[in-house]
Amino acid sequence: MLSLYIQHKRHGDEFELKNIEVTIMPSQITLLLGHNGAGKTTIIKSLFGLMDYVGTLSVNNKKIDLNVSEDVDYLKKNVSYISDEIALFDYLTPKEYFSLIENSFKHQVDHQLLEKLIKIFELERYLHIPISNLSHGNKKKTQIVSQLFKGSEFVIFDEPTNGLDPDMVIILRKTLHFLKTKGIGILLSTHHLSFGEELYDKVILLRNGKVKLNCTRDQVFEQFGRMSLEEIYEEANKDYYLKAEEILNAPDVRDNSEDRDSETG
Ligand SMILES: Nc1ncnc2c1ncn2[C@@H]1O[C@H](COP(=O)(O)OP(=O)(O)OP(=O)(O)O)[C@@H](O)[C@H]1O
Question: Ligand 1 pocket test: which of 20, 42, 211, 233 has the largest number of ligand atoms within 8 Å of its C-beta?
């Protein structure tokens, strides 16, 4: 189990996370949903030790102290993080990049898994081309494969579908399902609700740094019946949309100054 408790995290005067608990279980997919600026990336970066916060982080009941290098190594071995930003070494080819990444792991990796991932994400024909010459989607696929072949127990994925074509979105969904059946615990932050629909076991919904919903799939069905994730999202946030409706439906105040000018002029 990967478990994060953020007692407190603040960005300036504007944004605060308080008493947030996120747990990722083996063989489960947890969706992290929320509007732009809701706090998803802040939580994800905290889970991977990339952000300071007041709270605790543990992997398989081992408490992680981010100031202790053995703990950081343990975290990196057991948790893969696939950021929404693509940061690769552009002058390398994907093949060279995978070797570089492999050398940075302090454990044996599963080469069969790497071969499988290269095949299904259709990267074979790009393996020897500098990353700088690849399309955005192929860079994204290179990034995804470079983290998934690590074979970690947990995978944290920020906006996985950004820049992928519909084929690859479907293949990614099947890959995540496959990883889940192999016991991998996955956290998925996405705005692509239909992508998460089939996959999720748990859903956490944030609004302005606060948890609006933290439910298992069964609890979702109990609370919302057979609604789609998009309908659940809208229902859980309905107060927010009232404001937009009020603005849309407010009578227009016509600026009559031009008419007056022409009448008097
Ligand atoms: N390094 C930072 N310094 C100051 N404020 C920050 C920093 N990083 C994030 N924030 C602010 O914290 C809030 C949460 O940001 P975060 O990136 O976690 O949101 P998000 O849910 O991932 O949004 P998006 O869907 O747009 O990626 C936002 O108001 C953002 O402006």
Answer: 42
